[in-house]
Amino acid sequence: MVMQLDSHLAAVTRPDDDATAGRKRRGAFITVLYGALIVVVTSHFIAGPFRYLGYDARNWSLVDVLQCGVMLLILGSMNYPQWRYPSHVAYTFLVATVAVPIIVIPVFWGPLTASGVLTLQVTTLAAFATMRLCLAGGRVPLPGLKLPPEVFWLVLLVVSVGGIVYLIRSTGISPTVLSLSDVYSQRDDFSSNVTALGSYLVGWLGSGTLPAVLAVGLYRRNLILVGSASMGILVLYSITGNKSYVVGVLLALVGYVLCRPSVRSGRSWLIALGSAVAVAAVFDFFSGSFAMTTLIVRRALATAGLNTALYFDFFSHNPNYELKHSVLSFTGAPPYDLSPASLIGLHYYGSANVSANANLVADGYANFGILGCILMAAIFGVFLRIFDKASLHLPLQVSAPSLTLVLVAAANTATLTVLSTHGGIVALVLMLFMPAVVKGKRWSTESVVVKAPAAHAAET
User: What is the per-residue pLDDT across 325-362, written as a single tens digit (0 to 9) for each?
Assistant: First the structure.
């Protein structure tokens, strides 16, 4: 009888196990293809014109390429075959924008030796395995104060409008139609005039608040919410000159589509971003330029991978910060007068005005070496896990896109800065207090205050 029961259970569970294994194999294969695509596009469109920015070719070998392929296969096998929580979506996004560029770019460009490249690749895998471990298991909802819808949306409206008005008045910069070619002068104006509070407000609103409003508007099909959030983000772009806000709106829309119940595949972000890279390459090939590839590949992917190699090269032979320039300043003076990004900019690019920002791996190595990479991955993994617990009452199509601009910052900025300045903690608190959201059946301009029925349960 027991043997018959075991056989029945095996017959029931084996198809699901086989399907999961198949999805993992396809995901690993797509990860390799995605990495190869980044290398090909970087080689053809970016490395030559931007050699002065550190794209010096390495003397790579076939062994290096095979080693890179193995690393990508391992990385792809660690990805989630199916998304259940916002952290699963975030993990895939970081695999595509942080881990893959770090694994592939230093193999072909940069100052690292063969052993240095291997160390960087293994460290990156260890960091992402640590983050994956932090996200293991189920989730228990956080006990939060769920505000009445009318109170929540009124407070959010007052804070958002008030914050944007404060930024405009304190900086003296009026919102204008800003072209992508004018962003650098606008950034200088903003940096020169922004107050300490304003520098925080930008991230809290642009990354931590407005993407969540946009996601709720899309889910409820509410034109007022979608229009208000999009307009708010574009106003922040016009004031700050930060192009990530424009890109972030597009990525939030893509994330919303990818989180539909019929999709939610662990390889979705890889396919979406890979498609964007391919389209940019085709456009530049026929236009004879590198405008699209420099925006989508060089700025968003390749340079962060290259900068991570520069961090490893420099801090393998020089003292670490040990967060003495940040939250551990009370333990003593930092070894350098400049921030890590400015220090790397001065050493490798010849100017401290160049902010060579990278990601959690580079940030961790600058502070505590290899153990620092593991530490920063663990910190961000714990943050993502708490975010899951705070947003369990919300549909994945709301909670996951709400993190989009926080993740964009995480791919280019130090971990603690992402949480404190670029909206990470704000987004988490917003999820904790946000009322349940009901899916809209048609687009409308109805009041944003709609009470969810008591029996409402979020999608999983």
Answer: 999 999 999 999 999 999 999 999 988 888 898 899 99
pLDDT of the residue at 181: 64
Residue 21 has pLDDT above 90, yes or no: no
Number of domains forming the structure of the chain: 1
User: What whole-number distance in Å separates Cα of residue 396 and Cα of residue 458?
Assistant: 8
**Quick check: is 459 in a domain?**
no
Q: Check residue 3 and give its pLDDT.
A: 44
Q: What is the DSSP letter of 53?
A: G
Query: Which residues are CB-neighbours of 245 under 8 A, at least 6 positions away?
Result: 206, 233, 234, 236, 237, 405
Q: Cβ(147)–Cβ(182) under 8 Å?
A: no
Which SS3 state, helix, strand or coil, does residue 166 take? helix
Taking CA atoms, 413 is separated from 191, 335, 372, 403, in Å, by 17, 20, 15, 15
Least confident range from 65-74, 175-184, 200-209, 351-360: namely 175-184
Answer yes or no: is 411 within a domain: yes
Residue 114, in any domain of the structure: yes
Q: How far apart are CA 53 and CA 233, in angstroms?
A: 30
DSSP, collapsed to helix, strand or coil, labels residue 57 as strand
pLDDT of residue 454: 40
Q: Is 82 helix (H, G, I), strand (E, B) or coil?
A: strand
Cα–Cα distance, 177 to 181 (Å, whole number): 12
Q: Characterize 211-246 residue by residue with b for buried, 16 or more Cβ atoms within 10 angstroms of its Cβ, and e for exposed.
A: bbbbbbbbbbebeebbebbbebbbbbbbbbbbbbbb
Within a domain: residue 82? yes
Residue 185's pLDDT band (cuts 50, 70, 90): confident
The mean pLDDT value of the chain amounts to: 88
Where on the phi/psi map is residue 322: left (φ > 0), alpha (ψ -120 to 50), or beta? left
DSSP letter assigned to residue 222: B
In DSSP notation, 295-362 reads IIIIIIIIHHHHHHHHHHHHHTSS---TTTTTTTGGG---S-SS-HHHHHHHHHHS-TTS-----HHH
Compute the distance between CA of residue 326 and CA of residue 418 in angstroms, rounded to an integer.
13
More confident residue, 271 or 16: 271
Alpha-carbon distances of 9 from 2, 5, 6, 15, rounded to whole Å? 11, 6, 5, 11
- Domain coverage including residue 377: 1-449
pTM over 0.85: yes
